[in-house]
Amino acid sequence: MNFCMRYLQKFLKEKSGVSALEFALVLPVLLLCLLGIIDVSRYMHFNQKMDNTINTLSLMVNKNTRITEQEIKTYHDLIPSLMTPYDIKNLSFILTGVEQMRGKEQPEVIWQIHYGTKSRKSKVARKGEGAVVKKLPITLAEDEQLTILEVYNDFELTFDVTSMKEMLSVNTNGIYRKMISRPRYGSFEENPV
Fold first, then answer.
1. N or C terminus of the chain with fewer C-beta within 10 Å?
2. Going by C-beta distance under 8 Å and a sequence separation of 6 or more, which residues neighbour residue 159?
3. Model pLDDT for residues 141-183, shown as the tens digit of each residue
């Protein structure tokens, strides 16, 4: 028993391995912080790329007086170069044309085009009989048109930390962006679909 007490006292007085022990205790926390910073910066950069992409697509769609379905397909094919270096195999977009019809209270969907690998539903408007647009922040004059571009993409954090997802308000269904804009010349002469 006396031997054990002497050994324990000697162990407690020894200072040579203290810094290594402290480093071993602090290292996991430091690594977690570093990996979190990397993931947060990736997420922020991806969001910025999504914003730039949707702005560019919206400008390209609205620059002419007419647009064809083939042009929209070409714009969709440009997305990978706009989103470089991110993998966008799950990116989908919905382009919707909306018009304020004469004598109607709410604007109606006049055409809608879906592109992408996943089938997504529009959060703003759905094409169909009597389809109306939900809560537009813009008031339209009669016969005036809008285009609504919605982009969806699945984004996974590299390190699946629940608290980080909550802090960043990461939606488990992916990232969603929408852009509501007017065609440059007021309306399209003909609808693409």
1. N
2. 35, 36, 39
3. 777 788 888 888 877 767 665 555 566 555 555 778 888 887 7
